[in-house]
Amino acid sequence: MIVIRAKYFSKAVIKLPVQVKRALAERLQLFMNDPFSSILNNHALQGDRQPCRSINITGDYRLVYEQYDEETVLLIDIDTHSNLY
C-alpha cells in the first residue's frame, strides 16, 4: 500500500501527545496490512467530508484519509473526534 501524507497531516502529527503517536504508528501498521480490521472501525464519512473515510486511532482520536485507488491512500487529518466533526 502506498501511503501519502498531506502536509497538514504531518504538521498535526507533530503536535500529538507521545501516547497518541505510538498508537498512530501501531494503527497505521495494522491499516497497511488490513485496512478493514474491526479494531480500526473503518467507515465512510458523510456530508462535506465525502469521499473521505475515517479510522480509530485511540478511543477519541480519529484519522481521516482518502482512498485514491486500491493501493494508494492520502492521510488528510488526525485529531480528536470532537475537533474533526
CATH level-3 fold name: YaeB-like fold
Question: Could you tell me how far the N terminus lies from the C terminus, measured between alpha carbons in angstroms?
Answer: 27 Å
Give the C-level CATH assignment.
Alpha Beta
Structural class, please?
A: alpha+beta
Largest sheet: 5 strands, mixed
The H-and-E topology, N to C, reads as EHHEEEEH
Strand order in space, largest sheet:
1-5-4-3-2
- Average the pLDDT over all residues and give the rounded result: 94
Named CATH architecture: 2-Layer Sandwich
**Multimeric status of the protein:** single chain
Task: Categorize the overall geometry.
Answer: globular
How many H/I helical runs?
3
Name the CATH superfamily assignment.
RelE-like
Query: What's the count of strands?
Result: 5
| Amount of helix | 25-40%
DSSP strand content: 25-35%
| Number of domain modules | 1
Layout of helices and strands:
Layout: E1 2-5, H1 7-14, H2 18-33, E2 43-44, E3 53-56, E4 61-69, E5 72-80, H3 81-84
Parallel strand pairs: 1-5
Antiparallel strand pairs: 2-3, 3-4, 4-5
Tell me what the structure shows.
The chain is α+β, with helices and mostly antiparallel strands and 85 residues long. The protein has one domain: RelE-like (YaeB-like fold, 2-Layer Sandwich), CATH 3.30.2310. The mean pLDDT is 94. Helix content is 33%, strand content 33%. The protein has a 5-stranded mixed β-sheet with strand order 1-5-4-3-2. Strand 2 and strand 3 form a beta hairpin. The protein has 3 helices and 5 strands; from the N terminus they run βααββββα.
